[in-house]
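Hey, weird one. I pasted the Universal stress protein UspA sequence into the form twice and got a warning about non-standard characters only the second time. First submission, copied straight from the form history:
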Amino acid sequence: MVKHILIAHDLSPEADIALRRAIQLAGQLRARLTLLHVASSQPSPALLARLRSAEERTLATHLQGQPPLDVQLRLEVGPHPAELILQYISLGNCDLLVLGSHHQQPTQGFAGSVQERILEASPIPVLVAVDPAGAPYARALAAIDFSPCASRALRAAWQLLPPGAQLKALHVQEVATIRAADNPDERAFQQSLFERFIGAEFTALPPRAVQFSHSFQSGERQACLDAALADQAAQLLALGGHSRDALSERLLGSLTRHYLDNPPCDLLVVR
């Protein structure tokens, strides 16, 4: 259950989008919310006061018209923003981290390397929010590949959906498109494994008024996911953060990297 949401905010427009989502989820889930701003270099007392004032104004603007929330503002100073955010996660009993989309230049907000470091090491689900509307999620897609982190991503997405929303689990048996139908026996065997796997996963989910469906496809993973996202008009894509051919547990999967660079909707990444 999500009881404490952390939003890492850097005063960029992308972070404002993420803050809007964090506030929406905090209200929906009745969770407390912490807004964390990290200054990468030691500011003067006057600059620190201006930063706090700017974050307070931003927070007040986004909270207008919202139901009362338990909100805390924190300012931290250090040369390594990712490490400070990860440290706060470990100390703050947080259940979900919300980030805005990354930038190529650090002067525009969190650089891509900062976001990547957080995603590689975060012990909690990370939601990269890119949808400026910030409406409650109605349709979500979870990419399932039998890995523990994909299962955790499915469960995390389930928690973020309001009553009446739809969650679809998609497994792609990755084969070359031209050979997708070459071995029907193998496809039938893999589909049977998936049906048993997803049945056990669904049984383990806590009862909620969320519509659940699943699909098994053969083809290229990214192409199948792109088509499913478009067909469903998904607002949230849940992914495991692993790489099946990684040399280190801290390497993000290539599919996850692709969607982080080109987010089609909000992304939920779970290690």
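That's the output from the first submission. The warning seems to come from a hidden character in my clipboard, not from the data itself. The chain is about 40% helix and 25% strand.
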